[in-house]
Design brief:
alpha+beta; 4-stranded mixed beta sheet
Length: 79
Amino acid sequence: MAHIHYRVVQHDGGWAYKLNDVFSEAFRTREAALAAAKRVAAEQHVPGDQTQIEYQDANGRWHTEISEATDRPEADVIE
């Protein structure tokens, strides 16, 4: 199972949470960004619906897979 970490950082004149190199929208306070990050991390645990996905790989080949509804990452917030 994958494990992902959200981090709260200063960004764009305010605060944001980020996952890897992707930032959220900016929040006015660190506390607001932290609350949003905790909400997003908790939502990662909610199972979705089993669905078919299609994607193209780096070599231009298309793949079709079934995405399991219970295959959710472990997520947390690093303060």
